[in-house]
Design goal:
alpha/beta, 14% strand, 43% helix, 17 strands, 5-stranded parallel beta sheet, globular
């Protein structure tokens, strides 16, 4: 008998006898595999927490008890059990279920999460608010899938551990984020699994010290306690957490529902900070995902039997592939070149560099701020660091970019993948703000290539002229065409634009991915008698002052087109510049409006905001008509 269809809320789940819960877990895994095969998504982490989600809802009272999940992509099983099973086939689709936690979607999503490391701080805020109001519900932070490589998690733990507040931290330890976890914390947690003898040793020492106190009287009790603490610190797998002020429980098999529920029921009535360490396997129950955890972290729609993508890759390589392969080739030309990423070697394409130059590759985990400052330290010693970080994740290191790189004018190159509209990952992953935030950084060179050749050329320029911070951006998409071999690509002359089409009516100043659609739009309008110039503004900062002056003299209207927010974007920057030099010139900025963007296919998002050839042509046609009326 099927159990999952009858679960519309946690209340329904609690009606299921405990001995039937393993059967429910099997159903849920099959549901996840089947649905994500159609929609794509982050399947691996969610398969690993099926039992954990069941046990949390069985032992706690959501939404009265606040269950705060970190890294929202591990919460698909949570969604199935909290009223979203029927709508789950719409996962990551237009108007459908979000691929991440979203407060507006469900009362059980206590805190929106797309980036890692937020749960501990948010949960402490909720626990503090509860105490200020004199309430008594429980607050649980579920931290895992690499979030413990994120510094913010430790800031929250440090504050929570010595607050004496009633708060529970569940560590979902699967040894992975997207790629395998790195660093000392990962090794510490991994050592717990390898050394179960430590827990028994601690208990033996505790028994021995208590007997010592009874034999020699109360004056030895304090000594015995100190000895027990020393033993705890030396041998206990909970040493890290207990030093931070948490009472430690575990490790627990995260796929043993009986143990999970019993542990939660035992720990729930206690007070004070406590941690439950749960061991899970990413991709659990799906052989393909278990065998290749990194690949199956998240992917497009697939055949659940073979694992092959439903849409076969064809045509040109992705921007990510172009970057990764070029970086690996450039490693041979520049022996001081190193690549740095933050838990995303495959996602950024730096895994290609890693295979060829492993000693010059650094995955620092989910620690973007550290990645940037680490790069700065390398740069002070003559190394040429390339930081490859998604646009949306680099936001987390903005202070480091300014304080540690720009202020010191260090030659660090930032390569921002997933810039612009990212499609089905939705609001938290949109790379719409990097143009605006990088333009604001003094001394930062800001660039955007129109195609793969120009991306390689900009990489060469940055490496050949390491005079200060340099950034470039490119989308989650296929490149427009196959690039030339790296050796045949010339560096892009610094600070220059490229006139691709002359025209007397309107000048289109296009950025990056908008260059080719702007050219296509100009061709459409030419047939209607509207003559548009098209300029490839591959350097957003510095501007090509000489060419800009010529364009301002020849055109009454300049139209900028960028795949990013128009608030403080390239158009705004250009407008501010021209106000002082050519106040008579009108600047019209086309881009993404000031709003949060929900999930939808990237092509659909581009169409929605008029960032296609047809959309650009429509806007220019209307603008030209308006100007023609004014001229009369």
């Amino acid at each position: 008998m099927s159990l999952l269809p009858d679960i519309r809320s946690p209340h329904d789940l609690k009606q299921i006898p405990r001995d039937e819960l393993p059967a429910l877990a099997l159903e849920m895994r099959q549901r996840l595999i089947d649905c994500v095969a159609e929609t794509g998504g982050h399947i691996g982490a969610s398969l690993g927490v099926v039992e954990l989600a069941i046990a949390l809802l069985y032992a706690f009272d959501s939404p009265t008890d606040r269950i705060v999940w970190d890294v929202g992509h591990q919460a698909y099983a949570w969604k199935l059990l909290t009223g979203r099973n029927t709508g789950f086939p719409t996962l990551r689709q237009t108007g459908g279920i979000s691929g991440f936690l979203k407060r507006s979607e469900s009362a059980h999503d206590q805190f929106g999460a797309g980036h890692a490391g937020t749960a501990m701080s948010a949960a402490l805020g909720m626990a503090t608010a509860r105490d200020l109001r004199g309430e008594s519900h429980k607050v649980v932070a579920v931290v895992g899938d690499g979030a413990l490589t994120c510094g913010l998690s430790y800031e929250g733990m440090n504050n929570a551990g010595h607050s004496n507040r009633d708060i529970i931290l569940v560590v979902n330890d699967n040894g992975m984020s997207i790629s395998p976890n790195v660093g000392a914390i990962s090794k510490t947690l991994g050592g717990i699994v390898a050394s179960p003898v430590t827990n028994r040793l601690r208990e033996h020492i505790k028994t021995w010290t208590l007997r010592l106190g009874r034999v020699f009287g109360p004056e030895v009790v304090e000594f015995a306690r100190n000895l027990e603490e020393s033993a705890k610190n030396l041998f206990s797998e909970g040493m890290l957490f207990e030093e931070l002020g948490f009472r430690y429980f575990g490790p627990i098999d995260g796929h043993d529902l009986r143990k999970l529920i019993d542990t939660f029921n035992f720990v729930r009535p206690m007070t004070g900070p406590r941690v439950i360490h749960v061991l899970t396997e990413k991709g659990k129950g799906f052989a393909l995902a278990e065998a290749n955890k990194e690949k199956w972290h998240g992917l497009a729609a697939y055949d659940p039997v073979t694992g092959e993508a439903r849409k076969k890759a064809s045509g040109p390589p992705t921007w990510t592939q172009v970057f990764g392969e070029a970086l690996a080739e450039l490693g041979a030309l520049y022996p001081e070149l190193v690549a740095i990423t933050a838990a995303m070697p495959s996602g950024t394409g730096t895994s290609i560099f890693q295979k060829r130059w492993p000693e010059r590759f650094f995955d620092v985990g989910i620690a973007e701020g550290h990645a940037v400052t680490f790069a700065g330290g390398l740069a002070t010693q003559g190394i040429q660091p390339v930081c490859a970080i998604y646009s949306t994740f680099l936001q987390r290191a903005y202070d480091n970019v300014i304080h540690d790189i720009a202020v010191q004018q260090l030659p660090v190159m930032f390569c921002m993948d997933r810039a612009g509209l990212v499609g089905e990952d939705g609001q938290t992953h949109m790379g719409l703000y990097d143009i605006a935030y990088m333009l604001a950084v003094p001394g930062m060179t800001v660039t955007a290539p129109k195609d793969g050749n120009e991306l390689v050329g900009l990489l060469k320029t940055a490496l050949a002229q390491p005079t200060g911070p340099f950034c470039t951006r490119y989308p989650r998409d296929k490149a427009p065409a196959d690039p030339l071999p790296v050796a045949e690509v010339e560096p892009v002359p610094y600070g220059t634009w490229e006139v691709l089409r002359e025209g007397k009516d309107i000048a289109i100043l296009a950025v990056g991915t908008m260059v080719l659609p702007s050219l296509a739009a100009a061709r459409q309008l030419e047939a209607e008698g509207i003559d548009c110039a098209v300029v490839n503004c591959r350097y957003l900062k510095p501007l090509d002052a000489g060419l800009l002056a010529v364009l301002a003299q020849q055109h009454r209207t300049l139209v900028t087109v960028e795949e990013g927010t128009i608030v403080n974007g390239f158009g705004a920057y250009l407008s501010e510049t021209l106000q002082t030099t050519h106040p008579e010139v009108r600047v019209i900025a086309l881009g993404v409006p000031d709003r949060l963007i929900d999930q939808a296919p990237r092509a659909e998002q581009l169409e929605t905001f008029g960032l296609t050839a047809g959309g650009i042509a429509r806007r220019l046609r209307a603008l030209h008509s308006e100007e023609s009326v004014e001229a009369r």
